[in-house]
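Table S5 (text form). Sequence records supplied for joint modeling of the three-component complex.
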Amino acid sequence: MLGAYLPILVLVAIAVIFGLCSLVFSSLIGQKKPSVVKLAPYECGCEPVGSARERFSVKFYIIAMLFILFDIEAVFLYPWSVLFKRLGMFGVMEMGVFIVILFVGYIYVWKKGALEWE
Amino acid sequence: METFFFMIVAAVAVLASILVITCKNPINSALSLILTFFCLATLYVTLDAPFMAAIQVLVYAGAIMVLIVFVIMLLNVRTESGRRSSHSVLFGSLIGLFTLFQLFYLFNRSSLTGQKGTIDSALINKVGHTELIGKALYTDFLLPFEVTSILLLVAIIGAVVLTKKKI
Amino acid sequence: MGYEILGLPMAYYIAMVLKVLVVFVFVLLTVAYSTYAERKIIGHMQVRLGPMRTGWHGLLQPIADGVKLFFKEEIIPSKADKFAFLIAPLIALVPAFIGFAVIPFGETIEVGGYKIPLQIAAYYDTASGQVVDLNVGVLYILALASIGVYGIVLAGWSSNSKYSLLGGLRSSAQMISYELAAGLAIISVFMLSESLSLQKIVADQANGAWYAFKQPLAFILFFICSIAEINRTPFDLPEAETELVSGFCTEYSSMKYAMFFMAEYANMVTVCAVTTTLFLGGWHGPGFLPGWFWFVAKVYFLIFTCMWIRATYPRYRYDQLMRLGWKVFLPLTLINIVVTGIIVSL
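The corresponding structure-token record, covering 631 residues in total, follows.
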């Protein structure tokens, strides 16, 4: 167990060190001549209008929520896909029921226009 | 060595979860929560449950937290300013102490430790954790599994109802 | 060889450190030179020369770019959320570079009587005489892919600029949508391999045909979804410069910008390596050359394909992109699973 996971830890450490070094060294080496205009958010060279912290379309939430739900479906499919040859036709049937029920939900989402971007 | 590793990961997990409730900035709280999930996933790996670890990251850190971060961005939650009211501090600590007391009581009574399971590390390493979970889920716990699909269906409909103005 | 630490021989640790370093340097060099190759290949496809000035035919271009970015001024916008702004490139970079840990890139080699599998997160178990790797190798990669989203969403939010916010949101919604489709597309592979361990998936393809032939639909879906997930053309909406300037990294400069750039290319390398392993037989090839050669050749071919696609196709529109992901790919993957299930069990 240890033999397979220890290398991942080492690789994570190397990647983090590499990233931190890039951050630190570039901020040390690079010149710094800050000015009010330079530090303002970019808006095509004009004065920024209003705040960027505004509400955005509800579409993004529905995508995030549907993603969670279908991701959980995928999670249920992983152990099944590994076992399904051993479960035989019975396994296909039970997963068929599962997928069909969720497909009903998918069709509902489609028909209600939650997947439309206009 | 394993205990030592557990100590480090557990300490990080506890620290991160304390940060979740003490950070003034909600995004930093969310980040700490993600770190907590990672520590939990690491603990699952040390407990020979790699599938659980992967799911912990995939579903909790990778899916549910995305939604939470989106919501923080939508609500435009500002950095919390000022002190919390003294009432919430009082009630919060009381509830916390009560829960802690309950936990100690349960552990001392040790009425929770029942029989040991039949699945041990040797079996997991031989058969594979994913396979064992699958076997239990798709034979012994078939009905709960199918009911889950209905739960997910309800959640899908709920998501649409919540976000659509006109249904 | 008698000396052991934590039940593993000394040779294991030496081999591990060597493997980690070799792979890290390989990914880093591939990332650096695929930026060069991309400019060169697309240049020639568009009847231009591409970079020519630095070194012979511009061969030193990536190094010059890297040095230049190191010396650039670091700008942190005054309105930005400092901590999130600084940590976002790190969150994008780290998952991109550690995905390679579970990918087998060659056959087991023997050095001084000790067997070393060419896969970072694996070792040779002398007791059972088998290579032990992660039982959930594929899920590890999917989990890392799901973490990469935060780098982009945080970069977009913390910059406190409208372009960044829109770019970050668009790209995170795109990434999660296609992550879902990619995750569903590869299920039909596990149905054939009966395992999530990449060693076993590669071994199973060596015994039979490549999964690209057994599961052509899954192969195409997975590759397209992966390209969309790593935000490459024709799905590079977050960087749609005609509408969003530079998307989530509008406010980033110097090495922090370079880190997003490296993360993007490292993701491309990882995705190509995963596709090779899952569908193109991994490191297996005609026996006259070593396994790692075939692995690298297949990965580079797929990287070339990514660049070819970039030179060929125009960018998608955002509504078309989301429609494609949710209304075409998602049902197709589910149908593919059901059809595979019925055919195999009949």
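Note: Residues 10-45 of chain C form the longest helix (36 residues).
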